[in-house]
UniProtKB/TrEMBL annotation:
<protein>
    <recommendedName>
        <fullName>Methyltransferase domain-containing protein</fullName>
    </recommendedName>
</protein>
<dbReference type="InterPro" id="IPR041698">
    <property type="entry name" value="Methyltransf_25"/>
</dbReference>
<feature type="region of interest" description="Disordered">
    <location>
        <begin position="51"/>
        <end position="72"/>
    </location>
</feature>
<feature type="domain" description="Methyltransferase">
    <location>
        <begin position="130"/>
        <end position="229"/>
    </location>
</feature>
<dbReference type="InterPro" id="IPR029063">
    <property type="entry name" value="SAM-dependent_MTases_sf"/>
</dbReference>
<feature type="compositionally biased region" description="Low complexity">
    <location>
        <begin position="54"/>
        <end position="70"/>
    </location>
</feature>
<dbReference type="Pfam" id="PF13649">
    <property type="entry name" value="Methyltransf_25"/>
</dbReference>
Length: 435
């Protein structure tokens, strides 16, 4: 997936290869298969918009009323050569490259956390109806279907809701699936009270405005969950921070979480986890610009620091609030070697290390761990690329200046391994039981 090659012409492509591994190939293979389906669905969706049909397919229905009807029928506008939602604060494009980035981000998060549904009460809930809010390509739904099927829940009905139909008809893949087209800023949502066993909202930091709208949205999501059911929120921070050396272990001890972090070479985040501003100059530039651009639209750049607070204040409707926040380094950090094997079992056995590492290399990461970090770096760079028009505006750079800055960044991150001072992608999952 050499998606970035055309952006940087001054360096031979052979010098810009990311670490390859079976794990990386698996990640990209999954995305390639999903992208083929998504591409077909995007084309059919555009055709539907052009003829202004009121609904998209037998598995999809449109809910709109009054003056909101026309935007739902013709929601797209072309800007800077990419397709966007018009008249909305959502800053990202709605096209195949961005769809692939979001799929990769979803797969990355599920791989880091270990599963697509985090509630420990999954067998008690025995879900039959699951709702994915802001479903996009519905890639999370396909992962959740596979996960629940593995637990013996093979008759689960999935519903996805979003402002535009970007998902394929998952019924053709053996998933009981329906899509509802609806503007998520308009309440109530077109569902009955307590209709679902599990409601999952993903990546809403760049969708729902801050303040009162986000509070109303949360209340509406809770309304749709049955008593005893589960509400889950997943999100990723838009800005990059650097993890300081030797972070202390979380005060809350959960052996399963710690084992997953050791397996993936990631770090659990707790209130005591020490962070500093991003140490890489280019990622710090991008983070500053992203902060300015996103806050102008009254959206969240760091939703991972807000979600727990929002859930905890719902004392009359939610209980047993819990979470798992994870920092995924964007490369091998200089100070990791100093961590003892007892505290952080990242190293492979000496015999395995000698057999698999190339001559002259001395990595403490397994191929799978290195692939996960490389994927995180890919997601970050693609995110910056998707926000290019906004970032050029807030940075004051013209096209030539931007291309020069972009080339320097790519050289630093991909050739000089510039993300080695603790730069991390922060993501998390939060869950609670409805009272």
């Amino acid at each position: 997936m050499e998606w970035y090659m055309y952006r940087y012409q001054n360096v031979p492509s052979s010098q810009l290869q990311r670490p390859r591994s079976a794990a990386a190939d698996d990640l990209e293979g999954l995305l390639s298969r999903n992208s083929i389906v998504a591409s077909s669905n995007v084309s059919s969706s555009l055709a539907a918009m052009e003829v202004a049909r009121g609904s998209t397919s037998s598995s999809q229905s449109t809910h709109s009323s009054g003056d909101s009807h026309q935007p739902l029928l013709s929601p797209f506008v072309i800007r800077h050569g990419r397709r966007y939602l018009k008249d909305l604060p959502y800053p990202l494009p709605c096209d195949l490259p961005e769809l692939q980035r979001q799929n990769l981000s979803t797969l990355l998060a599920v791989t880091a956390v270990g599963k697509p549904i985090c509630t420990p009460r999954i067998k008690e809930i025995a879900p039959k109806k699951v709702l994915e809010i802001a479903c996009g390509s519905a890639y999370w739904t396909s992962l959740a279907h596979e996960y629940l099927s593995g637990l013996g829940f093979t008759d689960v009905e999935f519903t996805g809701i979003d402002i535009v139909p970007m998902a394929a008809d998952l019924n053709k893949q053996g998933v009981k699936w329906r899509f509802i087209q609806h503007d998520l800023r308009r309440f109530p949502l077109p569902f009955e009270d307590e209709e679902f066993d599990i409601v999952v909202c993903k990546d809403l930091g760049l969708v729902i405005p801050t303040g009162v709208p986000s509070q109303k949205a949360l209340e509406e999501f809770i309304r749709c969950v049955r008593k005893g059911g589960d509400l889950e929120c997943w999100d990723v921070d838009s800005v990059i921070r650097s993890l300081l050396p030797h972070p202390p272990p979380p005060l809350r001890h959960n052996q399963g979480d710690e084992d997953q972090c050791a397996k993936t070479a990631t770090f659990l985040i707790s209130p005591s986890t020490p962070f500093a501003s991003c140490q890489n100059k280019y990622l710090q530039d991008a983070s500053d610009w992203i902060q300015d651009a996103v806050e102008k639209r009254q959206l969240y750049t760091m939703p991972c620091s807000r979600i727990l607070q929002l859930l905890l204040q719902e004392t009359e409707t939610l209980k047993d609030v819990d979470y798992r926040r994870v920092a995924i380094p964007l490369g091998e950090m200089r100070w990791e070697r100093e961590m003892s094997g007892e505290k952080r079992p990242l190293k492979r056995r000496d015999s395995e290390l000698a057999a698999k590492l190339k001559s002259g290399e001395d990595s403490i990461l397994t191929e799978e761990q290195a692939a996960l970090r490389s994927t995180a770096l890919t997601v970050v760079i693609q995110f910056i690329e998707s926000l290019e028009p906004l970032l050029k505006e807030v940075s004051g750079k013209n096209q030539e200046e931007w291309q020069r800055w972009w080339g320097w960044m790519m050289d630093d991150l991909l050739q000089q391994k510039g993300a080695s001072s603790g730069e991390c992608l922060e993501l998390g999952a939060w869950w609670a039981e409805k009272i």
